[in-house]
Amino acid sequence: MVWVALGLAVVLALAIASVSAAILRVLPPPRDEPAARPYAELISPRLFLTVLVAALLALGGSLVLAPVVTWPPWVALGTVGVLLAVVDAHTGFLPLRLTGALAALVVVAAGISAWLKADPVVLVVALLCGAGAWTLFHLFWLIGGGIGFGDVRLAAIVAAAAGTTSLEFATWSLVLGGLAGVVWGLVTRIRRGSDGAFPYGPALVIGPYAALILQLFL
Fold it and tell me: Is 9 helix (H, G, I), strand (E, B) or coil?
């Protein structure tokens, strides 16, 4: 089964890296930032390699460590989720269309996982986790918690994906994603030599993978 997981990870990573340029070409700029650079300007061999390596690590680790019945949400996060995180890391924006595509994939994936487990409660818990994360991060956004509204959407999607495993796993994913965000922010501040906004999306996507690794020691 390990070789099946690794083989699938390689195929999916190559697939998302190969279509990343085509996806970026059709993404419109952020509505509230008309002067933002077109996403197509990110297209380069370096971007291809970044997406490929990140997807390989995400998919390889999750498909090997996670039960087969939970693979669908990990596939969504390890492909479109990784591309979304890479775009955010380079631009500071989470494209709405790509975020919407990830949300749709996660809902479908949660439904497939519920079917594989023969337990409809899995889908209910996933949706509740997503709604809970949306509420929490929306509150952070309203009080000026230093996050963008794209992060609110992404947090809900990530929590829903993690919620297909359990409520506890979704909670740990958000907590560890938050800690990753703190570390990311400190590194960014040190590199810049000043405080300021930084992409939070990559930290949110990292959260479930950190939680998966943490499970090995609990």
Answer: helix
Residues 99-122 have pLDDT tens digits of: 999 999 999 999 999 999 999 999
Q: From the CA atom positions of the chain, what is the Rg in Å?
A: 17
Q: Which residue has 């309203």 as its token pair?
A: 142
Q: How confident is the model at residue 193 (pLDDT cuts 50, 70, 90)?
A: low
Are 179 and 132 in contact by the 8 Å Cβ rule? The answer is no
Structure tokens at 88: 């955010």
Q: Which of 22, 34, 116, 16 is nearest to 71 (CA)?
A: 116
Q: 189 phi and psi, to 5 degrees?
A: -65, -40
Q: What is residue 146's predicted lDDT score, i.e. its pLDDT?
A: 72
Other C-beta atoms lying within 10 Å of the C-beta of residue 215: 14
pTM greater than 0.85? yes
Any residues with CB less than 8 A from the CB of 117 and at least 6 apart, and which? 69
